[in-house]
Predict the 3D structure of the following.
Amino acid sequence: MNPPSPAIVAQNAVRTLPRWALWLLCAAYVFPGFIGRSPWRETDIASFGYMRALAAGDTSWLRPSMLGLSPSTEGLLPYWLGAWALQIFPSSWSPEWVVRLPFIALLVLTFMSMWWAVYYLARTPGAQPVAFAFGGEARPQDYARAIADGGLLALMACLGLAQFSHETSSYLAQLAFGTITLLAAAAMAYHPRLAAALTGIGLLGLTLSGAPSLASILGLGIAVLTWHTRGTDLQHQGTWAIWWLCAVAFTSFIAWKLGLWEWRLINPWVEGKEWQSLGRLLTWFSWPAWPLALWTLWRWRHQLAAPARHTHLTLPLWLWVLAVGATLTTQPADRALLLGLPAISMLAAFALPTLRRSLGALIDWFTLIFFTISGIAIWVIWISMQTGFPAKPAANVARLAPGFTPTFSWFPFAVALAATVAWLLLVAWRTRRHRAAIWKSLVLPAGGATLGWVLLMTLWLPALDYGRSDAPHMRQVLAAIPADDSACVNVAGLGRAEVAALQYYTPWQLQLFRVDRARNCEWTITEPAYWATLSPAATTQWKQHAIAARPTDKKDRLLILQRR
């Protein structure tokens, strides 16, 4: 006997969110952060360096390297996408902007896949609301659209999504293809051919983006769930299960042939995992989706006894468990958790038809206060940077970013002002009396997260770019070495990000430092700690010329040496 659905939804509660408003909100979230900035430190600049090397033909497409340094992640597809963009688009375009175009498309694809995956899951029989005795309950398609709107809003509201979804890295690619895989599993009963194609695209994309083990485990779990599915619209369950197993086998074979299988598991009780920091990460990263997801699991707890019938619960729950497991056993933890945000947002969406009015009001008021105060703080600090009043915020910025000179630009100011006005209008709409819509409790969280991101990427972007990019640091290096554009410079003990930054911001010919050929170059750039570990035979022929410290982090220093 199937337990009764906890969702009680009338037809007037499943109004569709206006498409123009949803598209405008998505555009306001996607484009800021990709436009108007330099490549940022570590992951962003390192990926950019490998893309440039591939596009220039300086390295193998199957074994990319940069001055002999292999990527920190095994994924190939993200580097290919950036390199292809550099080769396709005109060379007169900024390469920093060109390599981001495929990743803009990946983020858009994530949002689209998220909406459709929730839509198809909400159409399954186990997800339907209670049928009223005299009619008037929500129609299945209208109900599914409203739940899908809520799922997308929940994803955009997650605080951990903004920064990592705007990096040109393998983690954004994993996010996109993981969501496509969920869409493939959700759409099997409604669009079999499309779902079959998306199965291969999603699992292969995950594999080529550096997550072959996760792709295999996710695919195997979906195959088992599909085999046992009963009481849904899905037919030929056995055939579908075999198809998923074949897709897993094929992508595993591709990963083996390309050498992508490399386990990087750590013991969370022994190696570098602080449980307190992990707890904070799990709390804020998926906020506010995770409290709603817990509410979903509680209200739908009786349906969890029949997991094969209620795939709207078990499918996202399976991916969320995998993402949390990867967070606990791999580094970096925050980027591993990124893949689980669509799953936790899907679960959060199914809390909406069961949400009590008091809980919805609590979410609204907390969101209103939090994001309004945050927006005011961003504006006050920006005004202080521009005018010097109030004085303390400007002094704090000057202390944290010495050498930074604030500038004013009309376009970012206009965008920030428009976003602020839109937020005020949204708050006014939400506080007025209006017809009920089950997605209304997630409008303010998604709008507030978008407001904060837009303000940071417009008003604060010059200061953030100064602190997070390598351009100011490289300007010091350029000023310290009186060499012409064709000069040869050794690099010793530098990481991928530093090498990529030197290749992009300086005109010199770089080569790895080796004692037997170091005399070919007059200059060497290294880190002081690394240079101190070398033998006297390697260092005696070099004298210190200068030290270039990052303006925002005096501990991040490059030692510049000149041959005696």
Notes: The chain has three domains: 11-34+100-353, 357-467, 471-563. The radius of gyration is 26 Å.
